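Quick question: who can interpret this fold?

. . .
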Amino acid sequence: MTETQTQAVRPKVTYTRGDIVLFRDAERFWLGLPGHTFVGRVERSWQQAGTGKVLYDLTELSGNRARAGIDPDYMRLLPPADAMRDIDTAPLSEPDTGAMTPAAVAWLRQHLAQDAALPAQRT
């Protein structure tokens, strides 16, 4: 029986300043060390002199630590839609607010507070 190998092909992504990404430190990962994956914000991109490869400088969001020369092969974009999915899909018709995630409840509270701050319309 012949086995067919499949290989995932990742599309080339260009990150821009302010993008939120997930980064994995491959060396720490393969050595089984903790702290190998973190969420960061792209600060800038630059081209490595010897290879011409584009690298990125990130700020680690959990500790506000700068990380320089990050290889984009180990980065993945964290789309805003994914971060906001719990709010977008909150079960607003549910009588039990416990079914909503804390983020959805926080958004609703903020939204309702803003509406309450508006002056009443006169008819």
Observations:
- The radius of gyration is 21 Å.
- The chain has two domains: 20-78, 81-117.
